[in-house]
Design a protein that fits this description.
The complex is a heterodimer of chains A (about 325) and B (about 230). With about 325 residues, chain A is an all-alpha fold. Chain A has one domain. The relative contact order of chain A is 0.16. Chain B is mainly α and about 230 residues long. Chain B has one domain. In chain B, helix 2 packs parallel to helix 6. The chains are: A mainly alpha (about 325), B mainly alpha (about 230). At the A-B interface, helix 12 of A face helix 1, helix 4 and helix 5 of B.
Chain lengths: ~325, ~230
């Protein structure tokens, strides 16, 4: 029994590791198709990673050990978080009790923090600008994220993602309550902000608009591949939390049988396709906000989280 | 007041409609375009009309159906039409004199909701109504009133000030639907006509403002003229 659970836990991490570029490719391809271009195909991120891993590392003379360590730290963080959340099974697997929702958030933030330091480390202008913008966004997004967590905690009376999942599956009354729906919308806005999407992050690759990409402009070769892969995994993890914990809690393996896990993986891809479609709609309809209007979507998200907490008190 | 033992379905319908109207008042607060304000106000009025009908259905107050129809027609169609007409004449499309940025006013509004909730929770606790839909109605009522005041305070455009007043009144009306559903129909008629008078007289005032000051911003009205 225990051996199977350990195997499942390894499968969870592997699923995130392997499927993250696919999700990125899916979103980019859908977007291209919606905008009537042909698109590079959904497997392009794999080809990009493959290419980058076969290049040599060129690093700036000013770079210190922080520059070399940051990609590894970011990548390791993203490998750790899937252990804590329900990716394939709806019950805790070994080591899932290492941290609750806040713990997962802490590890995600640690990954971003290391990339932030790397952006500042080499002393290039774009890296500094990227880091400063990313911190600005963090300052705006973090209070909302904490409020969403508080809202989830009040809803389920627990900070464990598995408990929230079970509650939402078991009681449709909670699922359709305004408190929960507001949390979904608040988290959706956060999802757009945290996964480098419009209306804040630019979809064109110009240095002047870059936020997250500006931080890693100095990287090349395998280190760049690790960073890109880590950011795709972060996106996958956030989608997993959004779907499996908050929005679409169904379709997870309940007993951990091989068939159930395969079904859960298929259901996961289906759910992600749905969310990706919503994201593509937003990306196609929205134009990028100017810098001094970044706080507007985040203020709306903050407001929704506050309303969710109020509505939850009166449920 | 509606008796405490409501069915879960009725409670969830009431709370959904209340929260929906609160959300629409935030649409007014967070937008810069005057058309959005008016459309949000109209949608809010429709939600409140639906709430009246729902209260009539659940509580068995037949006269509330008439009030629901009147609300939908007067608040949901007539007032927005008049407002849009004034806006078309004056050619004002957006709030030009922003005192507090929309995002900051959203956050301020969220804090006001929390304050309203604290007050309503205390009142509900004193009356022994903990966690019932009455507390929610009280919260939404107070919050919408405070948001109306906030709009009056932080917006300079004359149109927004009219809408702030209307928003304030919508809040009181929403609360009264749930807290005192047996309110005489006469009062509601009087209130509706008052609203028409408010919009008409403020429309006249705005036109005067344009003629004399050359702008629709109440910011210019700081000097007493004998």
């Amino acid at each position: 029994m225990a051996a199977r659970d350990i195997a499942l836990q390894v499968c969870q991490v592997l699923a995130v590791l392997v499927a993250a570029p696919l999700l990125q490719g899916l979103i980019l391809q859908f977007e291209e198709r919606v905008q009537r271009a042909r698109g590079p195909g959904i497997f392009q991120p794999y080809r990009d990673l493959w290419k980058l891993f076969h290049k040599q590392i060129v690093q700036p003379e000013t770079a210190s050990w922080v520059y070399r360590a940051a990609p590894l730290v970011a990548f390791t963080c993203m490998l750790t978080v899937p252990i804590l959340i329900p990716v394939l099974t709806d019950y805790p697997l070994p080591l899932s009790d290492m941290g609750d929702i806040l713990g997962g958030g802490l590890i995600l933030a640690l990954g971003s923090f290391s990339v932030l330091l790397a952006g500042l480390d080499s002393g290039s202008a774009w890296g500094g600008i990227g880091s400063s913008r990313a911190v600005m966004l963090g300052i705006l997004a973090e209070p909302t994220l904490i409020l969403v967590f508080v809202g989830i905690t009040l809803l389920a009376k627990a900070m464990l993602p598995f408990v929230v999942n079970h509650l939402l599956v078991a009681s449709p009354a909670v699922y359709w309550s305004p408190a929960h729906l507001f949390l979904v919308f608040a988290f959706f806005i956060l999802l757009l902000v945290e996964t480098d999407r419009l209306p804040i992050h630019s979809s064109t690759h110009l240095e002047i608009y870059m936020i997250d990409e500006a931080r890693i402009l100095e990287y090349s070769g395998p280190l760049l591949a690790l960073l890109k892969w880590a950011s795709m995994m972060k996106q996958f993890i956030l989608y997993t939390i959004f779907c499996n914990v908050l929005t679409l809690p169904w379709g997870l393996s309940q007993h951990g049988s091989a068939l159930g896990v395969l079904g859960a993986a298929a259901a996961l891809m289906l759910k992600f396709t749905l969310v990706a479609c919503a994201v593509v709609v937003v990306e196609t309809m929205q134009s990028r906000l100017r810098f001094y209007r970044y706080q507007e979507p985040l203020a709306a998200s903050f407001l929704l989280a506050v309303l969710a907490i109020v509505a939850n008190q009166l449920r | 007041m509606l008796h405490a033992a409501l069915s879960p379905l009725a409670e969830s319908i009431f709370s959904l409609l209340c929260i929906g109207s609160l959300l629409l008042s935030f649409v007014m607060l967070g937008s810069r375009w005057l058309t959005n304000y008016v459309l949000a106000f109209a949608a809010q009025s429709w939600l409140i009309a639906m709430l009246s009908a729902a209260v009539a259905w659940v509580g068995g107050y037949p006269e509330l159906y008439a009030i629901a129809v009147l609300t939908a027609i007067v608040r949901g169609l007539l007032l927005p039409y008049l407002l849009l007409r004034i806006m078309r004449e004056l050619a004002v499309a957006r709030e030009l004199h922003v005192v507090v940025q929309p995002s900051s006013s959203l956050v301020l509004g969220a804090l006001l909701v929390l304050f309203a909730f604290a007050v309503a929770a205390h009142a509900g606790h004193a009356l022994g109504l903990d966690g019932s839909v009455a507390v929610l109605a009280l919260t939404v009522m107070l919050a919408m009133k405070l948001i109306g005041f906030l709009m009056l305070a932080v917006r300079r455009e004359a149109m927004t000030q009219i809408l702030g007043l209307l928003e304030l009144e919508n809040g009181i009306f929403l609360g009264s639907q749930i807290l005192v559903p047996a309110m005489p129909m006469l009062i509601e008629l009087v209130v509706l006509f008052d609203l028409l008078v408010v919009v008409a007289s403020l429309g006249v005032l705005v036109r005067l403002l344009v003629v004399h000051v050359g702008s629709t911003s109440s910011h210019e009205l700081r000097r007493l003229v004998g």
